UniProtKB/TrEMBL annotation:
It comes from the Bacteria. InterPro entries: Cro/C1-type_HTH (IPR001387), DUF5753 (IPR043917), Lambda_DNA-bd_dom_sf (IPR010982). Residues 20-60 form the HTH cro/C1-type domain. CDD domains: HTH_XRE. GO terms for molecular function: DNA binding. Pfam families: DUF5753, HTH_31. This is HTH cro/C1-type domain-containing protein.
Length: 181
């Protein structure tokens, strides 16, 4: 089976990873050896090298320390790799989070709890079009407006503690049949 072609210039994150790999191989180290120095597993090193994971600042500093010719390169590359590792719509939130000393609540444009689905999360992460649901107090959401409005009405019922667990299960079944069948 052929290995996938590496494209280090595809993104700053992939470039960072390719530089780590280049320096690691130049030293003749295994991923496990670098992981031991960076206090992480070899699989995380592999994912950073392939551009699949965002490295931490400590990892970048470790690379600068252990690679003789790094001269601070990894710590300088780290902010660029980190900033462009997130979807464009999320970058502003990530920047705010880095500056924050406390994050008390952090779920903009998300429906909490039982009505989250894998499709909903995928739509959020892919940056689908945002629609406004009239009368929905939580603001803007992704999905079909009618379905979101129905789910919103049902959400308060789902989270209420007015019933026993068996009655709650019956209520959920009833709502699911009424709204989604």
């Amino acid at each position: 089976m052929r290995r996938p072609r590496r494209r280090p210039a595809a993104s700053p994150l992939k470039y960072f990873g390719s530089e780590v790999r280049l320096e690691r191989e130049r030293l003749g180290w295994t991923r496990k050896e670098l992981g031991k120095e960076a206090h992480c597993g070899y699989s995380l090193v592999a994912k950073i090298e392939s551009g699949e994971r965002v490295p931490g600042l400590d990892f970048a500093r470790t690379c600068d320390r252990v690679f003789p010719h790094a001269n601070g390169r990894f710590e300088r590359l780290w902010p660029l790799a980190l900033r462009l590792a997130f979807p464009p719509w999320f970058r502003r939130y990530a920047e705010l989070e880095w500056k924050a000393t406390v994050v008390r609540m952090f779920h903009p444009q998300l429906l909490p709890g039982l009505v989250q689905t894998p499709d909903y999360a995928r739509a959020i992460l892919e940056g689908a079009d945002v629609v406004h649901v009239d009368g929905f107090p939580r603001g803007f959401l992704l999905a079909e407006p009618d379905d979101v409005a129905k789910a919103s009405e049902a959400y308060d019922l789902l989270t209420a503690m007015a019933c026993s667990p068996d009655e709650s299960a019956d209520l959920i079944d009833s709502i699911a049949k009424d709204h989604y069948s």
